[in-house]
Specification:
492 residues, alpha/beta, UDP-N-acetylmuramoyl-L-alanine:D-glutamate ligase, 21 helices, 41% helix
């Protein structure tokens, strides 16, 4: 893969436009197909050199053409190759794919006749990333037969049955051990459940210039430090605690203080110079008994907050973890919309019936606001978007950011970060062990620390999600929210 494309995500529609633009620029399209097929064959031989039979499944489009090239290359190496096609390949194929078929000089059997055996390795070149409809019954049966047998599957572009735009399963899908795709990742490689079905992913450069790929791409990215490293604050000898930012985390009542303290501890560990827990009077003693480096301030009502906000050194705020659902959360949040704010958990749910008020306030406010909903909270705040099954998780996050005028962190194993300006990043470094109590509170604190240090909202959120995932990997299996805090890696 070209280094400049390492973080790029390309939709299937964009990839089709890239292929067309490459051909119009004078690049031989069959040469690109040949390079793709040869890359697949090389990967198959490298990964499974002892296979008794290589079973190549060819579909009715260019993905099938890649399969025919791979089959020819495998046969030329002396391998035992069997080709099975969906439909009538002589009638269904045209252009480069038909040319590739004609260069295959072996038998082509009907897909339905395939009986997988132990010792087989399956090369899935049926549909690839362009699939956007449900699979026909015949293909579903073959996929289920192969998955049940447990033989290795190497997918060409994307496991057949996975929608390349949404990552959703179209009735059935191969569970691939490896996937070979070309030029750049597709959303279906990162969005669940597609990500869990793709296995190990190899992105192969087949010779399309990076400028063509970048010109046709819509700007979606894999979340890596390259997205936000330029915005990360660098400490120098003159740095003091106020320059590193003052983060405020709001605590709930006496029975719900732990979540705020976790966020506060994470904010301090993530780099905020000062962190204060803003606590109602009823919880002051409980919080005071548990805090050391984190400061404490009594904030009971809207008037207390309004008075405190005159202090311009307060850099960012986290509202929601353990705070309680209700009008008090809404009133506090609306006061903070023109500051840097992470609205999380109860803070989000509190606006279920007051969404328009929040969105209208954010539309005119000058703050940097990040909202961090999990799936249930997202459905409560954006019900119409959540119900739209035509949208991918990326597109849902984008739509939510657009109507709310905030940066959205749509949480999950495939967290999507979407900015109000259209920026998108999909995260892929989070281990399953992050699904534990308090993990989201830690994330809110990390993002809050970034905002307190002056990072723009999108970059603060993307960096927070990435560091949260990296902390989970450092903490290892069996992590708790407390060990997660101590495992947060450096920002710079």
């Amino acid at each position: 893969m070209h280094s400049s494309l390492h973080d790029v995500l390309i939709t299937p529609a964009e990839m089709a436009a890239i292929d067309l633009a490459a051909a119009q620029s004078g690049i031989d399209s069959f040469l690109l197909m040949r390079r793709a097929g040869l890359a697949v064959a090389a990967a198959v031989l490298r990964l499974f050199p002892q296979a008794q039979r290589y079973v190549v499944l060819c579909g009715p489009g260019n993905n099938g053409g890649d399969g025919y090239v791979a089959a020819s290359a495998l046969a030329e190496c002396g391998a035992n190759v069997a080709v099975f096609a969906f439909g009538d390949p002589a009638a269904a194929l045209s252009g480069d794919a038909d040319r590739a078929r004609q260069l295959w000089d072996g038998a082509i059997d009907p897909l339905a006749s395939l009986v997988p055996h132990l010792g087989d390795v399956v090369v899935d070149a049926l549909f690839g990333a362009g699939l956007s409809r449900d699979l026909p019954e015949q293909v579903v049966q073959v996929i289920e037969r192969i998955n049940a047998k447990g033989v290795p599957v190497i997918a060409v572009d994307l496991p057949s049955g996975v929608d390349g735009r949404t990552g959703q399963i179209r009735r059935a899908a191969f569970a691939a051990s490896h996937t070979i795709t070309f030029m750049a990742r597709k959303p279906g490689h990162l969005l669940l459940p597609g990500r869990s079905l793709s296995g190990a992913l190899d992105v192969v450069d087949i010779g399309i210039p990076a400028r063509i790929v970048q010109a046709q791409g819509g700007g979606w990215r894999l979340n890596t430090p390259a997205l936000w490293s330029d915005q990360a604050s660098r400490l120098d000898a003159s740095t003091h605690k106020f320059r590193r930012g003052h983060l405020v985390v709001f605590s709930g009542g006496a029975q719900a203080t732990g979540a705020a303290r976790l966020s506060a501890a994470a904010g301090l560990a993530a780099g905020a110079g000062l962190v204060t827990v803003a606590s109602p009077k009823s919880a002051l003693d409980i919080n005071a008994a548990q805090l050391t480096a984190v400061m404490l301030r009594e904030i009971d009502d809207r008037q207390d907050l309004e008075h405190w906000l005159r202090d311009t050194r307060l850099g960012a705020f986290v509202l929601g973890p353990g705070f309680g659902v209700g009008d008090r959360a809404c009133d506090f949040a609306l006061q903070l919309c023109d500051r840097a704010l992470v609205l999380d958990a109860d803070g989000i749910t509190s606006f279920q019936e007051r969404r328009s008020e929040l969105f209208e306030r954010l539309a005119v406010a000058a703050g940097r606001v990040v909202m961090t909903p999990h799936e249930g909270e997202f459905a409560r705040l954006f019900p119409e978007i959540a119900r739209d099954e035509k949208l991918s998780k990326i597109e849902k996050a984008q739509a939510a950011a657009r109507i709310s005028h905030a940066t959205i962190v749509y949480k999950g194993a495939d967290t999507v970060i979407a900015g109000a300006d259209g920026k998108v990043a999909v995260n892929a470094n989070a281990p399953p062990s992050l699904a534990t109590a308090g993990s989201g509170d830690v994330l809110a604190g990390i993002v809050g620390a970034h905002l307190a240090q002056g990072m723009p909202a999108f970059e603060a959120a993307a960096a927070g999600v990435w560091r949260h995932g990296a902390a989970g990997a450092r903490a290892g299996p069996g992590l708790t929210a407390e060990t997660l805090v101590t495992s947060i890696p450096p920002l710079g």
